[in-house]
Amino acid sequence: MEERMLMKGNEALAEAAIRAGCKCYFGYPITPQTEIAAYMSKRMPKVGGVFIQAESEIAAINMVYGAASAGVRAMTSSSSPGISLKSEGISYLAGSDLPCVIVNVERGGPGLGGIQPSQSDYYLATKAGGHGDFSLLVFAPSSVQEMADLVVKAFDNADKYRMPAMILADGLLGQMMEPVRFPESYAPQPEKPWACTGHGNAREHNIINSLYLVPEELEKSNIERFERYERVKRELCLYDNYLTEDADIIVTAFGATARIVRSAVTMARAEGIRAGLIRPITLWPFPAQAYRDALSTAKAYLSVEMNMGQMVDDVKLAIECKRPVHFFGHTGGIVPTPAEVLAQLRAINEQIGK
Amino acid sequence: MLYTRPKSLCDVPLHFCPGCSHGIVHRIVAEVMDEMGIVGDTIGVCPVGCAVMSYDYFACDMIEAAHGRAPAVATGVKRSRPDKFVFTYQGDGDLAAIGTAETVHSATRGENITVIFINNTIYGMTGGQMAPTTLPGQVTQTTPYGRDPKVAGYPVRVCEMVSTLTGTAYAERVAVDSPQHIRAAKKAIRKAFDTQAAGKGFSIVEILSTCPTNWGMTPVQAVERVRNEMIPYYPLGVYKDITEVADNDQ
Amino acid sequence: MTSEIQLAGFGGQGILFAGKVLAYCGMMADREVSWLPSYGPEMRGGTCNCSVTLSDEPIGSPTVYTPDILIVMNEPSFLKFIGNVRPGGCAFVDSTLVDSKSDRTDIDIYEIPATAMAEENGLKGGANIIILGMLLKKTGIITMEEIEAAVRKIVPPAKAQLIENNMKAVRLGYDFS
Predict the structure, then answer these.
(1) With A250 labelled, which of A118, B128, B188, B245 sits at a CA distance of 20 to 30 A?
(2) Record: fold of B22-249
(3) Which residues of C fall within a CB distance of 8 Å from A6?
């Protein structure tokens, strides 16, 4: 293993992407993700890669579409309002079965919102990345190390399942520095015989396309894609459990919020409250089984999010509402504190004790 | 002269209306690819519009882009595969309305791609609405009283506009209303691909084209309209050509 | 052991840099480390603050709410943050720039005229590092070797003379009684 380097989350992500073989980066400046673009602009020319500051978020995602069509690893990054703009291109990428990585370092919304950390694009990432029936792989890092590790996983799995992958981070993770270690070796990239690379008169022409004017053909392509999604759900649910084995209360949180909750769970345990944390690492596919497994001891669930309560729906679905699922959160860039979460845990603990 | 299908066109029936210029332009683009022997080294990007299914027609690798985004997609392809020829094939709504930003910025970046631009002054596929190139007074589905510039603004002259940009290497407007003009159009397309081969930057060929169906005309009337109404408003000619200029003089 | 540190002052005083030096010190000691700046419009000219955590455990919240150690380099930050210091913790105050006093008796408050000391010693802009020298002496959470290694790591080779200046600043703070 290489030595530990102290890096910002945004920079670690960018460096890891390059090491994972990202050849093209297209982006547009927006706070709080601009370090990714700045880092790429510095490094890409040195490694024979491509950096373009696009004229718009829309152009950037469509450049990704072009590069992905040409069979190379390509990435764009933005923050919430910019991701709204990219959703057209994301739908086309999904509809054309193109692998790529889209990074969303979230900020508060709706509209122009604010620039402080937020997780209010959970729905956007997991349910509504654009028009049409499709899903994205969604990875939610919770540390600078994971900003690096998950972008590699995102590229590998995007290629494996031929679908776009999103890194759903937030301003806190993007701006903070932690030590990070990059792996020395990376999995080889798969062949892409479907790519538009010029057929050299050696094969039929390849077509990258999402248009199907015959209803039966469009339905067939959707059904095939959803069969692939079922495979993803079986093979790629990632999560992390902390003190869940005997937990009365399952707290769940993703990304930066999970760190705060972890602190709160430790504090609660010191008071004798049996709390445990489930941290989903993939938000799509959602690790529903982890929540069902916890039903054996859990009397209540609590979802803590930097939004008005979005993931809480998936938790309820996962356990089929067999237990109460509480929600606690902040928006606008206010980060929940461990003390606030602890207060929630105390209140729930009192309720379930009755 | 023996007319056979160019090898760079697939052996499938085209869906275009009788008298529409798309078939002619497809043919001459394919002939240029044949002449240069580059169909195996070319990646085309097609638009949303009447040419949406060009991916089935051109025998090179083809990518379908979202509406207006073809130059951005082509940018991604060309930067990934700089040794390949990359062209877009776009209509006027695609290129000069919803995709204006992509057009202007790929030109100003000097992207080394070729744009084949069909200007027929109307949205064809959606059934004949006003395009950015619709002439003043022209009746369309969404300008039922004729295009009134006070309400709907003026047409965009694309070649004139992009020729102001330093990144544009070659811009020419042609028409396909007569055999003589078709030969000139093909020459322009060849020149555009040659410009790309020389790595000179952005090349665009604007082709004044017919749409008899949505103009409510016979094919013959449509050709006459190109000659009598469009060419006077959109003069033919070379608007920009830096191909003879040494790189350091630009 | 976990040390939660908050640094606050004006933009341009090297608040983020001093935080980075601390974070590097922790990394040199192979500890868990996090560094989180305030970001946004307040970066430009206004107040600036930064959270640093050094720990032997995985770090939960990277935001420091109740610091064990507070470094303050201006009046508004002093007024805003001095009340948050954890009882039993300590605060390092640049007394050149902070006039207010705290009546807290449950924390140790160390005053040091760091900005004046920096100017007198030809180390303009080095007040932040002078304070780190005092922190080193009073808390022992970092060592002289770690701070020197950290400075060498951060300062680019082209600006090698800055290493000596920084170490001079550390020693000034360390020797200040």
Answers:
(1) A118
(2) Rossmann fold (3.40.50)
(3) 20, 23-24, 27, 33, 35
